[in-house]
Amino acid sequence: MLVDLSRLRLHDRAESTGLCQDAAAVDAVRARWLAACGRRPSLKRWKRLSGADKRRLLHTVALRADDDSPGGAYLTAYEQMDIDDVMDHERQSVEHVVPRSHINGRDPGDAEDDPVGWIVATRASNSRRGNKPLKLWDDEDGQMAAGTVRVDGEVHFAPPAAQRARLARKWLFLRATYADIDPPSRAQRRHAAAIVALAQHDPPSKAELRVNADLRARLGWANPLLEEGADKFYDDVGWRALVFGPYAC
């Protein structure tokens, strides 16, 4: 779905509240955001997870969310394969929407352990993406297949256009929740308004909503951008500063 971004922006500079530069105000926004996320459960470190742990936290959740109704299929992020086909052929992997190498340097980081920030991808497409930043905004390319693109002099990985809003909602969740993540790429910062607009206005599928509801029920922790009241975060300049930093103002 292509969203009309011509009248959307992070905020009107002429009416700026200065919230982004006010550390105390941003901390208050983070507290409200974390309260909406829930109480973070005790999660194993990524390197200590077994294959069974990963399947329980991601692949089994995806299978439960999947059905044959319109919008009900759980598709992989890059090849858009149905989860049933991927699991039947044992091609599944755990894709970190924010690559592990972008989290807390060489040390373990909480963001990599959080299943809310994972998505199913085939092993081959996971490898092709590597640790490249994602292109998470719409354009006129009508891209159907995933691939690499160069934006602002940096190589990015562009998911199929139909998957970008879904990935953006996970990407925004991680960046608003965790402080131990490398800054967004220059192109991601430049397209900040477009990323937020796409995530806000391109509606989630039934499968995406079911996954989030499942995590909420089982872990007590989920993505508020997929729940009632999401607009109060999307529309908050301080919340956007959690994601993009003070340069978002």
Helix content: 40-55%
Query: Averaging pLDDT over every residue, what do you get?
Result: 89
Encode the helix/strand succession as letters.
Answer: HHHEHEHEEHHHHHH
How many H/I helices? 11
Distance between the termini: 27 Å
Work out the count of structural domains.
1
Oligomeric state, counting identical vs distinct chains: single chain
Proportion of β residues?
A: 5-15%
Shape: globular
What about the largest sheet?
A: 2 strands, antiparallel
How is the largest sheet built, in terms of strand order?
1-2
Radius of gyration: 17 Å
Structural class: mainly alpha
Q: List low-pLDDT spans.
A: 1-19
How many extended strands?
4
Observed structural traits:
249 residues; mainly alpha; 4 strands; globular; disordered N terminus
Q: Could you characterize the architecture of this molecule?
A:
With 249 residues, the chain is mainly α. It has one domain (13-248). 41% of the residues lie in helices and 8% in strands. The chain has helices at 23-37, 51-65, 83-88, 110-113, 123-129, 164-177, 186-190, 192-201, 206-219, 231-234, 237-244, and strands at residues 92-96, 118-122, 147-151, 154-158. Helix 1 crosses helix 11 (237-244), helix 2 packs across helix 9 and helix 6 packs across helix 8 (192-201). Residues 1-19 have low confidence and may be disordered.
Tell me the layout of helices and strands.
Elements: H1 23-37, H2 51-65, H3 83-88, E1 92-96, H4 110-113, E2 118-122, H5 123-129, E3 147-151, E4 154-158, H6 164-177, H7 186-190, H8 192-201, H9 206-219, H10 231-234, H11 237-244
Antiparallel strand pairs: 1-2, 3-4
Helix pairs in contact: 1-11, 2-9, 6-8, 6-11
